[in-house]
Design a protein that fits this description.
single chain; alpha/beta; Rossmann fold; 7 strands; about 40% helix; globular
């Protein structure tokens, strides 16, 4: 995919950044703007994030794992409830300070599409955005979970 096409795609997206750290929010916003993003929403906690999803209908959520009130896992658990939540398929890129295997597996099991370790780079951010928007995986039910269809490599991990 050419840079121009990627940039045009990112320009059309509404992107929600959920992070209680103002410095990290600003950093993420600056990277997104550099990549061409025009419409960026911000939330400082999980409850505000769900409200913005309901009212502003963003295309992608960048969710920090450790936000207050409702943490990243709780936000995903609520969002991935097709019977209760209006946008259960919203692509979510989970941001985390450490990529411990248990946290990665938890995020994937709860329905994150991608995981990024903070601080990230514009290139990594762009790759994840392209992945969730240009090549979306269908949502499927695995036991009690409603998640993006696991990639073959993580299919085994999703069942634990």
């Amino acid at each position: 995919m050419s840079n121009r096409i990627v940039r045009e795609m990112i320009q059309t997206l509404g992107i929600l950044i959920v992070d209680n750290n103002p410095y990290m929010r600003r950093l993420t916003r600056m990277m997104l703007v550099t990549l061409g993003a025009k419409l960026i929403y911000e939330a400082v906690d999980g409850l505000a994030a769900l409200e913005i999803v309901r009212t502003s209908d963003p295309d992608v959520m960048m969710l920090d794992r450790d936000v207050p009130i409702l943490n990243g896992a709780e936000v995903l658990r609520i969002m991935r409830s097709p019977d209760l939540f209006p946008r259960p398929n919203l692509p979510v890129i989970m941001l985390t300070a450490q990529a411990r295997r248990s946290q990665v597996l938890e995020a994937l099991r709860l329905g994150a599409h991608e995981l990024l370790v903070k601080p990230t780079s514009p290139k990594a951010l762009q790759d994840r955005l392209v992945s969730v928007v240009a090549r979306p995986r269908p949502m499927v039910r695995i036991g009690p979970y409603y998640v993006p269809q696991p990639r073959r490599i993580s299919a085994a991990a999703a069942h634990h």
